[in-house]
Design a protein that fits this description.
Blueprint lengths: L8 E5 L5 E6 L3 H4 L5 E9 L5 E6 L14 E4 L6 H13 L9 E6 L7 E9 L11 E7 L1 H9 L8 H12 L2
Parallel strand pairs: 3-7
Antiparallel strand pairs: 1-2, 3-5, 4-8, 6-7
Helix pairs in contact: 3-4
């Protein structure tokens, strides 16, 4: 069965995040090791420092039923990181945001087991969004430390989530 995301056209980039070609998302496994993808991952953070953490739908190919970023998107071909984040907020959380609403934290380079450049953003809000039920089945507000504890105790999660939360803690500590 073909998944709707399989036909997305993405930019394959080199180690400096320069586009080297376009590929269908479903073709990336053939190109892995010869280039990287681009993704955006975003967290909603409330005034108490808690992150809005959704639980992925059970029909997801990656980490079904697992904890997830508030928003996570592949950057489409020709799109920049902020535009992908704005699109993700609309598609996954039914929220209209602009790049100016988001706090850019970092662009994390590829690493072993993580073949993508990852732009990380925060959106300050105390309101839980009306998320897309095709993407998520529920949510909770958690401190980054509590989220890491849950993952370390075996709560399923998207594979890159724990490392990203550790990076977030490093970036946001006074």
């Amino acid at each position: 069965m073909t998944h709707p995301h399989d036909t997305e056209i993405l930019d394959l980039v080199d180690g400096r995040d320069t586009v080297i070609r376009q590929i269908a998302r479903s073709d990336f496994p053939r190109w892995e090791g010869r280039g990287h993808l681009r993704v955006v991952d975003c967290f909603l953070r409330n005034d108490r420092g808690e992150l809005w953490i959704p639980r992925r739908a059970l029909d997801k190919r990656l980490a079904p039923g697992g904890l997830d970023y508030s928003v996570g998107e592949h950057v489409l071909s020709g799109e920049d990181y902020p535009a992908a984040a704005v699109r993700g907020f609309a598609e996954e959380l039914n929220l209209t945001v602009t790049p100016a609403d988001l706090t850019y934290l970092a662009k994390i380079p590829p690493a072993p087991g993580k073949p993508f450049f990852q732009a990380l953003y925060l959106l300050a809000t105390d309101t839980a969004p009306r998320y897309n039920p095709a993407d998520f089945t529920g949510f909770t507000w958690l401190t980054p430390e509590d989220l890491l504890t849950r993952i370390e105790r075996g709560d399923p999660a998207k594979p890159s989530l724990a490392a990203t939360v550790r990076h977030l803690l490093h970036l946001t500590r006074p």
